[in-house]
Amino acid sequence: MPNLLCELNSMLLLGAASFASSSVSSGIPTYQVFRANGKLEVDGLLKEEAWKKAALISNFKLPWDQEKPQATEARFLWDSDFLYGAFRAWDHEIVTWTAPNHRGKIAVTDHDRVEIFFAWEESLKNYYCLEIDPDGVVFDYKAHYHRNFDPSWHLTGLKVASKILPDGYVVELAVPLAVMNELGFPVSASGFTWKVGVYRADFSLTQPGKLKMLWQTWIDPGLSQPDFHVPSSFGYFEFVKK
Fold it and tell me: Which residue segments constitute the domains of the chain, with CATH numbers given?
């Protein structure tokens, strides 16, 4: 176990210089999703060489709080079948407390978690959300602007693995491209672009049943109150062949 944790931490620190922070002409941040150069196993270990070469998102922000955020890193890769994601969240207090009235996958809304949203319309008329806690429990739902949620929706074929570490947790996922294509998202062997939001909910229990909520986001949506469910919190994922 110690060797695995050391390898995992060093691996996730590699490649920071490759963070794709370029912007398209509209000024919206763009992340380049590189094509994986080998098979990826969704096991929460991130042991494959390809992860070392994936571009890094590490500049998560706390737009609504003055304190320094706990570190979060995210990487993404793709192949002919999946979009792969790897989140590393440093966390001194992992919270999986659940309100008594929250059952099933809704319980994730009380937990520490990482989040990724997908949209193909600027208006967010239809978009799709994945929220995944440190134990790998998924809250998946369909939504439309503003904050109209359909938790009955389920992303068929999604793969998720997680691993809790002494200083935080890892979440790894694989989103099936064929299913996303059926939902209207472009998919092509030559490359394509989606609108994507990447986030983290970092919670702590200030007293039993009382949560302190810190909301981290890849892109500051420019709002006075916390809200990820707005067009300004989305950037672009550019899937490239290299």
Answer: 2-239 (2.60.40.1190)
